Amino acid sequence: MSSHRTAARSRCASCGTTSMVGQHHLYADAPALVLSCPTCSEVEPRIASQDGRILLEQRGTALLTVPAPQTVVRETPPRLTAVDADAPPR
Ligand SMILES: [Zn+2]
Fold it and tell me: By residue range, what is the domain housing residue 37?
């Protein structure tokens, strides 16, 4: 993975502060994983699992920005050219 997950940024819907997701306060012992804004402590995303599904509530997040993984640039394969069967070998 070329981008690090802590590079994600979140803008709080309550106070408008944009901060790194890694700066948020994490409450892992709640019924869901809860992140709260490091500036105003409002709840931003809540993540839970239920009946084999992942639930993500983002009511407190105005904008979540996650760097896209870098694409792999591959060399262009050599072009195939037609061979003249009557031509002498090179
Ligand atoms: Zn906030």
Answer: 24-65
